[in-house]
Design a protein that fits this description.
The complex is a heterodimer of chains A (about 80) and B (about 550). With about 80 residues, chain A is an all-alpha fold. In chain A, about 60% of the residues lie in helices and about 0% in strands. Chain A is globular. The mean pLDDT of chain B is about 85. A two-stranded antiparallel sheet of chain B has the order 1-2. Chain B has 21 helices and two strands. Chain B has about 550 residues and is mostly helical. The chains are: A mainly alpha (about 80), B mainly alpha (about 550). Chains A and B meet through helix 1, helix 2 and helix 3 of A and helix 12 of B.
Chain lengths: ~80, ~550
């Protein structure tokens, strides 16, 4: 179960990294929707989320992500396991 | 066996394909898999039997380690597995180079081992290391030895890629419909193979002869003239593309004949308007692996460390130099440097990789700077055209390192490209009574305008104006299945109504496409069967 607060926190991270207050994290959102979301900023988002949620992702887990929804579910699963 | 050799085209391929479907239909998928493994090992052993044991040992070793890792992840075992792979690769690929480098540095008079490079070792080592990493992360499903072996040795992709991910290949071999011949994939496979064979024998091989204008005389370090340097370097950039993308198209086509989809490796790379874009369109399966298994881990480790130390993370809106250098430039240079020497043991390959790393960093930096200065994304065909031209020339220069036998040769050609090479060029111009002395630019143009230059100009037209082969095959798939459907309906012709006749006629909307591919295939086959088959450039990696 993905709590709404995960999306709120992701929204905050995205807004801060891309400096765009209109961004809103949604399950079906993906890197394609933000022009500056390249492999470089991808890592920044991942690490910012690690810090925010106090979890650590494996490389293989990151490769399997298709969209923000996948990411939120991964975070939820990690938090539950922790 | 080369894809462009008679023994492959007339013997191995049809025999393997027919027996595969026969065994699949009668004895079932498991036996068909074994047959395909055996055939692929035969295909590999045809070159040099002595390399076969290493391949078999490598498969057994990685399968055993991978199985143990997916049962229980263990870091030491993963490290052992990776070390085993790298040790084999290092011994066969890099020991001669390292010994020579140390010898030159110390003057110790070391014996320099002369070790023959086992075919495809860079490719199968790379694919299997990725498998071990995924197995340890719990990301690799357990599979049968035959399917695992197929993931490594499936002959269309064994020698030079496309570099496949274990999951994408193993999953496909688990599907029962792979073992039944399907008309659509068979036809599309033949079409893709035809385009690839044409690229190889009609375009790449003659381009290779033109490239010798730069790479022939410079072997001993003599700089060629300005015109020959540029002309030869451009011919080589085209040769490499047609050779490798032709090989990839053939691999994809062969895969399709077996009902297997291999990943696309090239998407019109020379249409890229930047280096960043270039690497998303050139040798895409390599880029994908480099990003996932080298760039990301390094970049994540650095970013985590900076974050833990309380340093600010990089933000594109407020670009700062230190985070840019640490989080972006460093991992990029390391990744591309490794990508360079993955291709071959030699300084020229290291320089090739680092050059691309540097160009990628400059490209990313430029994007940030442009944004910081308040310019939007560039638009319009003129800007894009300029970007394409600059990117193509930059890539052409980098491939001079890639093609050269050593650093001296590469530098000699670069001197030539800078106009510092030897004598003023003498050319026989059409209509001119005798060879006259012309300026360097006129000499370059006359190279392109010559009869031999036709293949270079034609090659440029193909890479800039035509869609990529996989893209084209994709558009063809709808037409092909529609046409097969209407042929089936045609069998019931006494029952058909006029409207259905019309539908059948419409499904054959573009018979020219089929005819065109048929002509390309015939030309390519005539050529392939009449000359001694030449090796693919990527077979030496």
């Amino acid at each position: 179960m993905v709590q709404p607060e995960i999306y709120d926190a992701l929204t905050q991270i995205l807004r801060e990294i891309f400096d765009d207050p209109t961004l809103r994290a949604a399950p079906e959102m993906s890197a394609k929707d933000v022009p500056e979301w390249d492999s470089f900023n991808h890592i920044n988002i991942i690490v910012a989320a690690e810090q925010r949620f106090g979890v650590k992702f494996r490389t293989a887990e990151i490769d399997g992500l298709r969209n923000v929804g996948d990411f939120a579910e991964l975070i939820a699963a990690k938090r539950q396991a922790a | 066996m080369l894809f462009n050799s008679p023994e492959f085209l007339l013997g191995f391929l049809p025999a393997t394909l027919i027996v595969f479907f026969l065994v699949g239909a009668t004895l079932g998928p498991a036996r068909a898999q074994l047959w395909l493994v055996a055939a692929s090992l035969f295909f590999y052993g045809w070159w040099r039997l002595e390399f076969l044991p290493l391949l078999v040992v490598s498969i057994c070793f990685n399968y055993a380690v991978g199985r143990a890792l997916s049962r229980r992840p263990r870091r030491w075992l993963l490290m052992l597995g990776i070390a085993g792979n790298l040790a084999a690769l290092g011994w066969f690929k890099y020991s001669g180079f390292l010994a020579a480098a140390i010898d030159e540095l110390t003057g110790a008079g070391l014996p320099i081992p002369q070790i023959a490079l086992p075919l495809a070792i860079s490719f199968y080592t790379f694919q299997q290391i990725a498998y071990l990493v995924d197995a340890n992360a719990g990301n690799a499903e357990r599979t049968s030895p035959a399917r695992y072996a197929l993931f490594v040795v499936f002959f269309p992709q064994l020698i030079a890629g496309p570099i496949v991910h274990h999951r994408e290949l193993i999953e496909q071999f688990e599907r029962p419909d792979v073992y039944r011949p399907r008309t659509t994939t068979l036809i599309l496979g033949i079409a893709a193979f035809a385009l690839g064979l044409f690229k190889k024998v009609i375009l790449a091989d003659p381009l290779g002869t033109q490239a010798l204008l730069a790479f022939g005389p410079s072997v001993d370090g003599t700089a060629p003239g300005f015109a020959d340097s540029w002309y030869g370097a451009i011919a080589y950039a085209l040769q490499l593309y047609f050779d490798f993308s032709g090989y990839s198209d053939m691999a994809i086509g062969l895969g399709l004949m077996f009902g297997i989809r291999l990943p696309v490796n090239f998407a019109s790379p020379y249409k890229s308007a930047s280096i960043v874009e270039f690497w998303s369109r050139w040798h895409m399966t390599l880029t994908r692996f480099l990003t996932a298994y080298i760039y990301n881990p390094i970049s994540i480790a650095i970013t985590r460390r900076r974050a833990a130390a309380g340093k600010p993370l990089f933000r594109p809106s407020v670009p700062k130099t230190a985070p840019f250098l640490m989080q972006m430039a460093l991992p990029t240079l390391v990744t591309m440097g490794l990508a360079g020497i993955w291709h071959g043991a030699g300084w020229q390959f290291a320089i090739f990789g680092l050059l691309h790393g540097a160009m990628l960093v400059v490209n990313h930096g430029w994007r940030l700077l442009r944004r910081a200065l308040g310019f939007g994304r560039p638009q319009g065909w003129a800007t894009r055209g300029l970007g394409v031209l600059v990117t193509f020339l930059a890539v052409t220069v980098s491939f001079v390192f890639f093609r050269s036998a050593n650093l001296d040769q590469a530098l000699a050609i670069l001197r030539g490209m800078a106009g510092l090479g030897g004598e003023v060029v003498k050319v026989a111009r059409l209509g001119a009574p005798e060879p006259g002395t012309v300026g360097p630019l006129a000499a370059l143009l006359s190279r392109f305008a010559s009869l031999q230059g036709l293949v270079v100009v034609g090659g440029l037209a193909v890479v800039w104006l035509l869609p990529s082969a996989p893209q084209y095959i994709e558009t063809l798939s709808g037409t092909v299945s529609a046409r097969i459907g209407s042929l089936r309906r045609l069998l019931r012709w006494p029952l058909l109504r006029p409207r259905q006749w019309a539908a059948i006629a419409y499904a054959g909307n573009n018979p020219l496409q089929g005819a065109a591919i048929g002509i390309l295939l015939s030309l390519a086959l005539l050529r392939a069967l009449s000359v001694a088959p030449s090796e693919f450039l990527y077979f030496t990696f």
